Amino acid sequence: MAEREFPGFTLRSSATKDGSRFKALLSSHPAVRGFPSYFTVYDNRSFRDEASALVAAEKALGLVLGVEEDGAPIFAEGETGFDDDLPGDETTETDDDDTDDQDLDEGPDDGDHHDVRS
After folding, report:
1. Domain spans of the chain?
2. What confidence score (pLDDT) does residue 52 get?
């Protein structure tokens, strides 16, 4: 379990059993008084073992930018925590070749087209 201090709150990483799998979570503990709040992270993924869930929770804790007034963790816009969702990792088609559509439309006669009608 890792923890980080924020103004008014301490966030801690942990994991919890969810059926036969595990979920990664962050708990937010008020500095003055009150009860902790619990926030699951990576809701669309579960983990086969507790150790993997703990590693994911610690990673999520490292990505927290701050906390809301109620102690909810704040992440960067669009942050998923998944390495497979990083910008620049997606495969996109580029127009890197030296030909253009016009070159592809022309035949071996270099564009000298004849209209043959019967």
Report:
1. 3-76
2. 93
Query: Which one, of 39, 62, 63, 59, lies nearest residue 51 by Cα?
Result: 59
Please tell me which residue, 87 or 118, carries the higher pLDDT value.
87
Buried b (16+ CB within 10 A) or exposed e, 45-79: ebbeeeebbbebbbbbbeebeebeeebebeeeeee
Comparing 111 with 46, the larger pLDDT belongs to 46
Residue 73 has pLDDT above 80, yes or no: yes
Q: Which residues contact 47 (CB under 8 A, 6 or more apart)?
A: 15, 21, 22, 23, 24, 53, 56
- Whole-model pTM: value is 0.67
| Contacts with 50 (C-beta within 8 Å, 6 or more apart), sequence order | 15, 17, 22
The most distant pair of C-alpha atoms in the chain lies apart, rounded to whole Å, by 92
